[in-house]
TrEMBL record, chain A:
One of its GO terms (biological process) is transmembrane transport. The keyword Transmembrane applies. It is a multi-pass membrane protein. Keywords: Cell membrane, Membrane, Transmembrane, Transmembrane helix, Transport. It holds the Pfam family BPD_transp_1. This is ABC transporter permease. It is found in: Cell membrane. Its main location: membrane. The keyword NAD does not apply.
Automatic annotation (TrEMBL), chain B:
Its main location: membrane. PROSITE patterns: PROKAR_LIPOPROTEIN, SBP_BACTERIAL_5. It is found in: Cell membrane. It comes from Bacillus yapensis. InterPro entries: Peptide/Ni-bd, SBP_5, SBP_5_CS, SBP_5_dom. PANTHER family: OLIGOPEPTIDE-BINDING PROTEIN APPA, PERIPLASMIC BINDING COMPONENT OF ABC TRANSPORTER. Keywords: Signal, Transport. SUPFAM superfamilies: Periplasmic binding protein-like II (SSF53850). This is Solute-binding protein family 5 domain-containing protein.
């Protein structure tokens, strides 16, 4: 088991390193940001001077080496715009993103699992068909469009919820629903097929034949077993949600990490972008790591492989 | 089966209850940014909420050159000199008067008896501190490039300063009006730059309350403001990046005011909720003679001027939201002089091309444009291409990301033509010097005699001579067909009728000038 954990930790480090490397070079493709910081009437010598001050005049590999050296020590430098600590700015946004992600995940599980179970149990009935149909639509609707429709109906017309911003539970309702839509659809479909799979197993038939009540059959025997593969799906989804749901955060002006990254990318504030990518990569890798460990714990076969 | 259904029912009930708990009447701590009442009568009691596309990057003055940052913090800090909201003429604020002592020295007399929001006195030291902040390399202020010619700020007395420059700097007053905001030296030194960047203190009409980045900035009226108590008690700048969300927030009454309604969305607003002002920001089509190609030939540039019908573009693509210009300056510019108008004349265009030795069909030009930076910019580019196409010129339009567009211009890697805007522009020097000289980063045009004349005129202190010099330059630049001048942008604001608000020509939003109706 220890061997397995060590291997996985090494993998996490590699993943984070690669993510930072790729993003470092990708954002440089957008060009030198110095001109965007200075007033348009800045003379050439001034632009050169700032280029030097900000370090953009050095060869790219030198800049990369410097950056990696800092990153290893958790130092991502300062925001090019405001001079504040880049990592600090990203961390300050994490609570808002966590709040949105956990709520959206909770909401989708509460809705999706019962719906999926019921769909499987009532296979091929009208209920099942309706639920499958709705989930297909849920997956097909673009996030930003659904968000705007919610804003239009519930904020602009009915005035039930604020259309944007953060800070209260009321502010959370629309973005959480928007974010949950896609996950709900995925979870319903997944739960349904996992349940169908389990329900066709011999032991279920035997248990049923023994006269076990339906609720016990589903809750105790079928659901428990079909939930195992769903853990992976939940973990992956949580990773995506915590990475900052960029579009949802933008539509609802939710002050989370996704918004910060988007804004920083537009502002060419590279240190913030890289600090953000670092945090997201770590979260994603750690969640996967925990999932693997959980899996290994549940299913010893994985450990052996 | 029955118990299973009960279980599900219970789950759905829980979800419903959870959602219901989040609706009206939920008492949530810190929910002070809830929507102001949409009822216009009740609006007076709540805070004024102004929607913005982006947030300030810092609340420290004199640091980041950025429209949003400047507009927001101008409510907290005062300038020494401001512009008249409608005529753009200089008006004194913290400074009482200013004059040239000699070509390299400016003298400013300051108003007395003004206090910062923390009770400290405003005086000459604060002015020196604020300018020195810009000049100190270690601070990394992006304004320094504009102030590089300032050598020293000398405090003569508590309320008198002299600014010494290394070269004659006639446009320093403009720099003071557009860039400089006065910080409280004692406060900044005491708490440090980082804290002063997020909890600012100035002499302005509003004091800082709370800033949640990319979410809101809340201010309240400075009761002891030296120009009188502001009429609006509380103000919140709310950051809503998405236009549709901003529009919904306006429709639902959550926000009272926002700038930049896209011209193709104006119809969705009630007509009495849209206010418009002609901006000093101009849009133009640069006909670059800094890149190799047929546009190095004067006749080809003139032909293009005749072949493009800017009036039609303005009417059809922008639905008339803009004011035509014919030269490099707008009428709001203090140095504006009337120039020749190339009327639309496709036949003359063809004739000129032939004189230059080109058949229109043989001419292939490229046109660079940003997308979304100026009203309908990429649509304008397409329309220009099709107008040129109609006399046979083949035009390829290239749409660039904004940063890339600027970089192409700087590196002289654009096509023959490109679309760019310039502003706020209230004096000739900052436009002409930056856009028609060989080395200036965003220039598209160079002509030896014109450059010489620009340099001479820039150094003139006599207002009449200066005006005459720039007037002549404007005529020559039009004669040289350096651009196809297009229009001044129209700034379109959505304003609730409960709010009394007049848009300023410099695009600022000073809440002190607003009131509830």
């Amino acid at each position: 088991m220890l061997d397995f954990i060590v291997k996985r930790v090494v993998q996490v480090v590699i993943v984070v390193f690669l993510a930072l490397t790729v993003v470092f070079f990708l954002i440089r493709l957008s060009g030198d940001p110095t001109t965007l910081f200075l007033p348009p009437d800045a003379p050439k010598e001034q632009i050169e001077e700032y280029r030097e001050l900000l370090g953009f005049n050095r060869p790219l590999y030198v800049q990369y080496a410097e950056f990696m050296k800092g990153a290893v020590h958790g130092d991502f430098g300062e925001s090019l715009r405001s001079g504040e600590d880049a990592l600090g700015l990203v961390m300050a946004r994490m609570p808002a993103t966590f709040q949105l992600a956990i709520s959206a995940l909770a909401l989708s599980l509460i809705i999706a699992i019962p719906l999926g179970v019921l769909s499987a149990y009532k296979r091929n009935t009208l209920f099942d068909k309706a639920s499958v149909g709705i989930t297909v639509i849920g997956q097909a609707i673009p996030n930003f469009w659904f968000g705007l429709i919610l804003i239009f109906i519930f904020a602009a017309q009915l005035k039930l919820f604020p259309s944007s911003g953060g800070g209260s539970v009321k502010h959370m309702v629309l973005p959480v629903i928007t974010l949950a839509l896609y996950s709900v659809s995925r979870f319903v479909r997944f739960t349904r097929s996992a349940m169908l799979d389990v329900l066709s197993k011999d032991y279920i038939r035997t248990t049923k034949a023994a006269g076990t009540p339906t609720s016990t059959l589903i809750m105790k025997y079928a659901l428990k077993n079909s939930l195992i593969p769903i853990i992976t799906l939940i973990a992956l989804d949580l990773g995506v949600l915590l990475g900052g749901a960029v579009i949802t955060e933008a539509v609802f002006s939710w002050p989370g990490v996704g918004r910060l990254l988007q804004q920083s990318l537009m502002n060419r504030d590279f240190p913030i972008v890289l600090a953000g990518v670092f945090i997201i990569a770590i979260i994603y890798a750690v969640i996967n790591f925990i999932t693997d460990i959980l899996y290994a714990y549940v299913n010893p076969q994985i450990r052996v492989k | 089966m029955m118990s299973n259904n009960k279980f599900l029912l219970a789950l759905f009930l829980i979800v419903t209850l959870l959602l219901a708990a989040c609706t009206e009447g939920t008492n949530v701590e810190g929910d002070s940014s809830s929507s102001p009442d949409s009822d216009s009568n009740a609006a007076n009691s709540g805070p004024l909420v102004i929607g913005f596309e982006a947030d300030a990057t810092t609340l420290l003055a004199n640091h980041d050159v950025n429209y949003t940052t400047d507009t927001l913090i101008r409510n907290i800090y005062d300038p020494l000199i401001d512009r008249d909201p409608q005529t753009a003429e200089f008006i004194p604020v913290l400074a009482e008067e200013w004059k040239n002592v000699d070509e390299k020295t400016w003298y400013l007399k300051l108003k007395e008896g003004i206090k910062f929001q923390n009770g400290a006195d405003f005086n000459a030291n604060a002015v020196k501190f604020s300018i020195d902040y810009i000049l100190d390399e270690n601070n990394g202020s992006f304004y320094r490039s504009r102030w590089a010619n300032v050598e020293e700020v000398v405090v003569l007395s508590d309320y008198e300063v002299e600014i010494h420059t290394s070269v004659p700097f006639p446009s320093l007053i403009q720099r003071i009006a557009e860039d400089l905001l006065i910080m409280e030296p004692g406060y900044v030194q005491e708490v440090g730059i980082e804290k002063a960047s997020s909890e600012p203190v100035g002499t302005g009409a509003y004091t800082f309350v709370d800033w949640s980045r990319d979410n809101y900035l809340k201010l309240k009226a400075n009761e002891d403001y030296w120009q009188g108590k502001p009429k609006i008690e509380e103000v919140e700048f709310r950051i809503i990046p998405e236009f549709s969300a901003r529009m919904s927030a306006f429709m639902s009454g959550e926000i009272h005011l926002f700038k930049n309604i896209p011209v193709d969305s104006v119809e969705q607003f009630e007509s009495d909720e849209v206010k418009q002002v002609s901006s000093s920001r101009i849009n133009y089509l640069a006909l670059s003679n800094l890149v190799d190609g047929p546009l190095k030939d004067l006749k080809v540039r003139q032909a293009i001027n005749y072949a493009i019908d800017a009036d039609e573009l303005l009417e059809t693509v922008l639905s008339g939201n803009g004011t035509r210009i014919t030269g490099p300056l707008s009428k709001l510019n203090a140095d504006y002089a009337e120039t020749k108008d190339y009327r639309y004349d496709p036949e003359l265009a063809v004739k000129l091309l032939e004189e230059a030795g080109f058949k229109p069909e043989d001419l292939s030009l490229t046109l660079d444009t940003p997308s979304g930076r100026y009203p309908m910019d990429s649509h304008i580019a397409q329309a220009i291409a099709s107008q040129l196409q109609s006399i046979g010129i083949n035009v390829e339009v290239r749409v660039n990301e904004w940063g890339q567009h600027l970089e192409k211009i700087q590196k002289r890697e654009t096509g023959d033509m490109y679309i760019l805007g310039w502003g706020p522009a209230f004096d000739a020097q900052s436009t002409i010097e930056n856009l028609f000289t060989k080395e200036a980063p965003y220039s598209s045009f160079y002509e030896e005699n014109i450059e010489k004349k620009i340099k001479e005129t820039n150094q003139l202190f006599n207002q009449d001579e200066r005006y005459a010099g720039y007037a002549e330059l404007q005529q020559e630049l039009v004669e040289q067909a350096a651009w196809v001048p297009l229009w001044q942008q129209a700034d379109l604001y959505a304003v609730k009728t409960s709010l009394s608000f007049s848009p300023r020509v410099d695009e600022k939003m000073n809440v002190f000038e607003m009131a509830w109706n």
